[in-house]
Amino acid sequence: MEIKTIPTTPIDGQKPGTSGLRKKTRVFMEAHYLENFVQSVFDAIGGAEGKTFVVGGDGRYFNAEAIQTILRMAAANGAKHVITGRGGLLSTPAASNLIRKNATDGGLILSASHNPGGVDEDFGLKFNIPNGGPAPESVTNAIFEATCNINRYLTLDTPAIDLETIGETLLGKMTVSVVDPVADYAELMEELFDFTAIREHIANGFEIRFDAMHAITGPYAKAILEDALGAPSGTAINAIPSEDFGGGHPDPNPAWAKDLMNELMSDDGPDFGAASDGDGDRNMILGRNCYVSPSDSLAVLTANAHLAPGYANGLAGVARSMPTSCAVDRVALELGIECFETPTGWKFFGNLLDAGKATLCGEESFGTGSDHVREKDGLWAVLLWLNILASRKCSVSELLLTHWEKYGRNYYSRHDFEALPIADANALMARVSGQLNDLPGKSFAGLEVTKADSFAYEDPVDGSKSSNQGLRIQFSGGARAVFRLSGTGTEGATVRLYVEYLETEPSKLNGDVQLALAPVIEAAHEIADIAKLGRPGPDVIT
Ligand code: VG1
Ligand code: CO
């Protein structure tokens, strides 16, 4: 088969962000845009010759065409083998598992995760390395470098191949294996969790609801929760993946998973509720009349993971992203294990997981995971919660309250100011960073600043350094405010304000979150002069 060499020129702005390259779908559909990036990935990793990759995506608009393009380019670049899910579908954690299980040379994951999908919405692509995790900065920098110097890409002139039939096909000299997207992942979950105990708990009347948000986890949730664990049909809702996620944001938080929230925040709703995002790596956990903040979820899972067979021997350590609340730190202290604080983005957990320094990891942005794969994993978190609840035989709210009584409660919230003019967002960050040295000792809204800095990280495994990872302001008494610019948006800039406040007084553990945080929010507004953004309030509060 004739390999075609297509001349091209560099395209601006192909720099991967927090999690791969994310742009408007129409940008990805422009001539050479996808091709330039894919060729740059291959060039940055020393070529594709003789290599095996996993390729799959969350099924959003343009997924199907983009996969065919990637397959042709992989074949033209000499790849030996590509593994993909039926229909080109794979959740991000399932892709990570396949990359690891088949000892491949990495994978290309097509997703813009929790961002909406459609021709006028978002698309994304990221490269994962052979450990199954998102490429670290050294690799994403090399990819970006390659996009700046590209002058040709390689492809084949072939029709689209059938991805609906499980089995093997040849594309040029490259083998394409189409596999069941769910089977290997479900098998892994069954190894980690006590399915018998969860099945019994459900059979005894424990009612669950899982909202797949019209995204990739529908088939996974149906197979695992309904077929394997015996939850009644209809437990997984919005379970058929659609190209535009039913027109919504596939983002599992109280703002976007409103129907699920309404169902659970009542006295006669299900016992347990959960949702996942576009590509299946995020999770939101709810109980009857009870919302679990992702930071609390990480702390509760860390304290109770030993109840699941896969973690029965205890945890080597835990890691959280810097803006994630410090709730898990106190659990780690109690367990006598190390707690690492990393920059935002799952790629920073990879080395800690590979080196056996951390077993569980988590982010405030509804992400939790473990060393079973190298991505955060929505359904995994749901199953670990279910395993713990089946073992402790208590409700979500009881488990949470007992946890707070023992460790105190980190009231926590994130306020997002979205799609701002880039200059306004940069000016706000500059206002805060300009004050960092002078803040300690000053008081705002009755809170005294004890420490303020710009977060920099040195990877304890390979010594690589990342600076400018968010501005931290620590107040006396365990309160904290963090400012950061998002690295996943596709429109203007998004400022994230993360606030937390530690409460240990037993009578104050069940308060209103925004009220408890009011002084920290006020202090943050004063310091950053947020009013200058000219917004009536945050666009999203989680
Ligand atoms: C956001 C979250 C971050 C997460 C990233 C990818 O990044 O804050 O914690 O790792 O999304 O998640 P940012 O740079 O916009 O704050 V996903 O599920 O979108 O792959
Ligand atoms: Co995601």
Automatic annotation (TrEMBL):
Q: What is its EC number?
A: 5.4.2.2
**Listed Gene3D superfamilies:** Alpha-D-Glucose-1,6-Bisphosphate, subunit A, domain 3 (3.40.120.10), Alpha-D-phosphohexomutase, C-terminal domain (3.30.310.50)
Query: Which residues does the UniProt record annotate as the domain Alpha-D-phosphohexomutase alpha/beta/alpha?
Result: 14-148, 184-286, 295-407
Annotated segments matching region Disordered: 1-20
Q: Name one GO cellular component term.
A: cytosol
Report the domain of life of the source organism: Bacteria
Matching entries from InterPro entries are given as: A-D-PHexomutase_a/b/a-I, A-D-PHexomutase_a/b/a-I/II/III, A-D-PHexomutase_a/b/a-II, A-D-PHexomutase_a/b/a-III, A-D-PHexomutase_C_sf, A-D-PHexomutase_CS, Alpha-D-phosphohexomutase_SF, PGM
Q: Name its co-factor(s).
A: Mg(2+)
Q: Which Pfam families match?
A: PGM1_C_vert_fung (PF24947), PGM_PMM_I (PF02878), PGM_PMM_II (PF02879), PGM_PMM_III (PF02880)
Provide the top EC class.
isomerase
Q: Per the record, what are the reactions this protein catalyses?
A: alpha-D-glucose 1-phosphate = alpha-D-glucose 6-phosphate
Task: Spell out the molecular function terms from Gene Ontology.
Answer: magnesium ion binding; phosphoglucomutase activity
| Alphabetic keyword roster | Isomerase, Magnesium, Metal-binding, Phosphoprotein
**GO BP annotation list:** carbohydrate metabolic process
Q: Write down the PROSITE patterns for this protein, in alphabetical order.
A: PGM_PMM (PS00710)
Q: Identify its protein family.
A: Belongs to the phosphohexose mutase family.
The cross-references to PANTHER family, in alphabetical order and at most eight, read:
PHOSPHOGLUCOMUTASE, PHOSPHOHEXOMUTASE FAMILY MEMBER
- Official protein name in the record: phosphoglucomutase (alpha-D-glucose-1,6-bisphosphate-dependent)
From which source organism is this entry?
A: Roseibium album
- Lineage, highest ranks first: Bacteria, Pseudomonadati, Pseudomonadota, Alphaproteobacteria, Hyphomicrobiales
